[in-house]
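Reader question, answered in our methods column.
A reader sent in the components of a multi-part assembly and asked whether the whole thing could be modeled at once rather than chain by chain. We filled in our standard form and ran it. Here is what they sent:
COMPLEX SIZE: three components
ENTRIES:
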Amino acid sequence: MKPSADLPSTKSPAAEPRDRGGPAQPLLIVEGLRKHFPLKGLPFTRRPVVQAVDGVSFAVKKGETLGIVGESGCGKSTTARLLMHLIEPDAGTIVFDGDPVGGLRGISVRDLRRQMQMVFQDSYSSLNPRAQIADIIAFGQIAHGRDATEARERAHDLLARVGLAPHLFARRYPHELSGGQRQRVNIARALAMDPRLVLLDEAVSALDKSVEAQVLNLLQDLKQDLNLTYIFISHDLNVVRYMSDRVVVMYLGRIVEIGEVEALYRQPRHPYTRALLSAVPTLDPRRRTEAPPLTGDPPNPINPPSGCRFRTRCPFAEGVCADRTPILAAIGEGVDHAVACHMDTAGSGHSKAPAAPVSSLEAAE
Amino acid sequence: MSITAAAPAISIPAPVAGKGYWRLVGERLARDKVTLVVAAILLAVILVAIFAPLITAHDPYVGRVANRLKPIGTPNHWLGTDEVGRDLWTRLAYGSRLTLLTGVTPVIVATLIGATLGIVAGIGGRVVNTLVMRTMDVFYAFPSVLLAIAICGVLGSGVRNMILSLTIVFIPPVVRVSESVTTQVRSLDFVEAARATGASLAMVIRHQVIANVLSPILVYATSLVSLSIILAAGLSFLGLGVAPPNAEWGSMLNALRQSIYVNPVNAALPGLVILITSMAFNLMSDGLRSAMDVRLPR
Amino acid sequence: MLVYALVRILYTIPILLGVSLIAFGLIHLVPGNPLDLLLPPEAPKELVDQIKAKYGFDQPLYIQYFTWLGRVAVGDLGNSVFTGEPVREQLISALSNTLVLAIPAAVLGFALGIFLGAVAGFNRDTWIDKLASAIAITGVSMPHYWGAIVSVILFSVILNWLPATGMGPSGGLPQSWEDVTHMILPVATLSLIPMGVISRLVRATVLEINGQEFTAALRGKGLRRKRIIYHVLKNAAPPAMALMGLQFGYLLGGSILVETVYNWPGSGQLMNLAIFRRDIPVLQATVVVLSFFFVLINLSVDVLQAAIDPRIRR
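And here is the structure of the entire assembly that came back:
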């Protein structure tokens, strides 16, 4: 399908007028992001707190797809909402293409939202049930002061771009669409703002497998044509592998491992990542893993375990894991693969850790 | 989930002609037989109230005592006569005016005030919400009938005081309903999605929240009219509202109550029309509810 | 659980204070001076001052409020300006007469409502459902004072089965069959509204739960219909109970209209009398006590509900 002249796809990547830091500048840098939700408790006592996101740091390079995986409740969706400033973070900085978000010299949340958009998981509840499809897509632009007729015209173009015939769909209501069609509308709405970064929060998780594949391919095409960067959040490891260039693994509000997708899937370092991957069904007998599968549920995020949060389910847990929190560190010089585990930290005191003076390269064998 | 709702929609072959939301609701109402009948009844009551002088042949305030308590079907008085010989049909027709006025006005006023307060409490911050809702909790602690009777009893009888007391009684429940739907709608993803476009809060509230909050409030208000009519007539029944000889269903019922041994059917008639009107508003509310729920397949 | 109950109890204190404030303020809604109600316009100045001092009307409002509140807190509800007798005794006897009607009516309405709603819900869209729903909507839309009149017409005037008005010869709790016959009509009439409201709620809840997957799973496990009905009803009970708490308040307040028709010497009649005699202390006391009662009932329903339904706690 040929995109209309109005869409930014006609511009070459270099011509992106909003680019500030050049290709080497990460599009998004997140540093020490934290969100604790207080719960109701007895008056005059300390309120219990859910540590939904607790000190998350990562960077997203221009043009890549960064996957975020983890069990439900690990803080993936909270991270996405924090990035969009739909909920206010307690601490942490977000830098978009070199500009800090908020603050005096940075860009405003409003400006950030023009460049960063989000596709929600629940395709039904994320569309206003009382509005027609074209109006839903056009809303954001009209809110930013664009002429209503123009905005609706563009909504028609976008519908075509996501594979929905405008003359059939523009005036329908969300309940008249299937799940896959609604998710395409959600994508079109995100694109209407002309974003550079799109957050896909479990965007295909609720869809049938065949529909899921179509939507994933659409997303790949759009990324190519519109020069987009994605953050792709999912609990489905296969889908994340198919979509992502790099992957972040989260557990109970913290990042346990981050790395290039193939390296991370072939040689997972963190016991949690290994356990997750071993749970993925595979038909290849050579790809069997010996890692024990995960048992039990994640612990309560209200009172997470001390030290390493995974230790209560980790087969290698030792005393040090309860005493100290492992730090996310690269597993080797110049390697884009970091893990937060005492077994990979030289001199951590874990029996399987490399000895203190020896370089951590040894552990990478 | 929404899968069941989506199924019939896919089978729509032709492009859906552009319809506004209210037109959609109207079409759904038109297909609902019970609601159509109910709407016809309500329309009839309203028309009777407006054209009472044209469709009645007698004076509602003049009767001959010799003519009292004639049964239904008496020539010249097809619904019979009341305890002082006035034509019952004329009295009932004129009575619909005051009953509708005292039943509907408090709900309209209470909905305007209550919905505003409730939406503000639902959108506003914690302090505003606590302030509004805890105040309402206090009013909610009174049984509604008791509060209405007490206020009306202290203020003294009369149409104005009755409307005032019912309005005070109905504001808290409207606030509660409005606040709860606003909070619900506000937490839905589509409001977050609208915020994520960078639209201003005012814009999001106007276009995304209000539109979705008004229909449930309207449905609730319609069902409140049913209760309001019962209570308004009840206050008059107690002698706290409309005073005789004015024609009003509640006070007519009270006056005719003494005649149950002579002509029970006539005595029960004003109450029957209260029941029918109140039931019509209740069913109308049910009909509106299902017509406005766009998620239900039709 | 205990924590929830404690918080909930603490929370009722400001509400009760608010209620007392409004009930106290009621008297000042009266157009003009509250004394106008007590005294003829031509009363001599000394008498006015004397009465003013006696009732504390010469004090500032807030002092009047706290004095009144302090007295109410220890159970002193003042004296009737009409009879001069203590309000407390009148109110206790009237309230117990009202409860003699309201409690059986609440139980009956609740039981019938659950039954009707469940029958309708489990036989969705059949004629049974339509009939049950029609009964329910009639109960909800019924002016109960009219229901009272119709019941008297039917069972007393036409059939002559039951006494039309008044309490039985014993007064207070029923002690003979004759006392019970006097209760039947008022209790049945009062139970109609809660029956309608509860049955509509139960029907909707049953439909909702029936549509959920866990009931399908129960059916899949080959559970007998009886067991499934039990499971569904167990889930429908908590919201029905919460609603019943509210409905009980409606019964207390609504009794004023029904008691008038049946000439039942309950709190409703007491209040009605107080209004027409402009007997403000009696009116005030009735409002306060009935509302306190209502608040306490809702409190116990909430706590009870939390004990049954773990989702409500926290």
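What stands out: Chain B has twelve helices and no strands. The first helix of chain B runs from residue 3 to 10.
Send us your own complexes using the same form.
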